[in-house]
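Thread amino acids onto this structure.
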C-alpha cells in the first residue's frame, strides 16, 4: 500500500507466504513401510491384489517326539496342531516362527532348516494361506500352552493323533526329510574304513611306508648276459 494510505486501482495485493509453510508442503509423506514416498506418487500407487495370507509353523522334533499344541480357537478347536500363526508386518518369517513358538509353548528355539512351503487353497477354512514350515531346535523342556493354545505337549512320532489343517502331511514330509539326512554318509569318511573294508591309504607326501623302487635289467654288450642294477636317480 502506498504512503498516502490509498490503494492503487487494478493492483491486487500479493499474499505473503512464510518459508516454513512452503517447506512443509514440499516435504514428502512417510509411507507405512518406512520408505519416503512423495505425495503425488503415493496417490498413483496401485493397491496390492488379493492373495493368500502368510503364516508360519514350527516343527520341533526331539528324542523321537514332536511338539504339538491343542487349539483353543476355531477353526479346528480341540484338535492338535503344530505351533504357528500369522506373520506380522514388522517381522520376518524366521522371527515370527520363533515368536509363535514362545507364545504358544513357552519354549525358546532357533531355526535350523526349512521343511517346505504349503499353499493349497483349501488348507484353511478361513481363506487362502501360505505357510512356511521351519525346523526349529532347542532345549527340550516341559511346554506350557499359551496364547490361543489350550495345551502343549510332546507326542511320540508313532502315536500321533489326527492333526488340524494339513499338518499330517507336513509331519510326514519332515520325518522323510530327517530320515534321508541321517542316511547320508558323513563327509571326509573313506568308504570301508572302520567297517571291515580295505584300510585307508596314506596321503601323498605323508610319512607312510614307501614302496621300494623297481630295479632295472640292463643287457651287457659283450657276452649277452644280463645284470641287475639299482634304481636310477631321477
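Threaded sequence (234 positions):
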Amino acid at each position: 500500500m502506498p504512503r498516502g494510505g490509498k490503494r492503487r486501482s487494478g493492483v491486487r495485493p500479493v499474499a505473503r507466504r512464510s518459508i516454513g509453510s512452503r517447506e512443509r508442503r514440499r516435504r514428502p509423506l512417510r509411507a507405512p513401510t518406512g520408505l519416503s514416498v512423495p505425495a503425488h506418487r503415493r496417490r498413483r500407487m496401485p493397491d496390492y491384489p488379493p492373495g493368500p495370507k502368510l503364516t508360519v509353523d514350527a516343527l520341533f522334533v526331539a528324542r523321537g517326539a514332536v511338539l504339538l499344541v491343542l487349539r483353543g480357537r476355531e477353526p479346528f478347536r480341540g484338535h492338535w496342531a503344530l505351533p504357528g500363526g500369522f506373520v506380522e508386518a514388522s517381522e520376518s518369517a524366521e522371527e515370527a516362527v520363533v515368536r509363535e513358538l514362545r507364545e504358544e509353548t513357552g519354549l525358546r528355539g532357533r531355526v535350523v532348516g526349512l521343511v517346505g512351503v504349503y499353499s493349497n487353497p483349501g488348507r484353511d477354512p478361513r481363506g487362502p494361506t501360505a505357510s512356511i514350515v521351519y525346523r526349529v531346535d532347542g532345549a527340550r523342556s516341559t511346554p506350557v500352552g499359551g496364547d490361543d493354545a489350550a495345551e502343549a505337549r510332546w507326542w511320540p512320532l508313532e502315536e500321533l493323533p489326527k492333526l488340524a489343517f494339513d499338518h499330517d502331511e507336513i509331519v510326514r514330509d519332515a520325518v522323510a526329510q530327517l530320515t534321508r539326512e541321517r542316511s547320508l554318509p558323513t563327509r571326509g569318511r573313506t568308504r570301508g574304513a572302520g567297517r571291515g573294508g580295505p584300510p585307508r591309504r596314506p596321503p601323498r607326501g605323508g610319512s607312510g611306508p614307501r614302496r621300494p623302487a623297481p630295479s632295472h635289467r640292463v643287457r651287457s654288450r659283450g657276452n649277452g648276459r644280463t645284470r641287475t642294477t639299482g634304481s636310477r636317480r631321477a
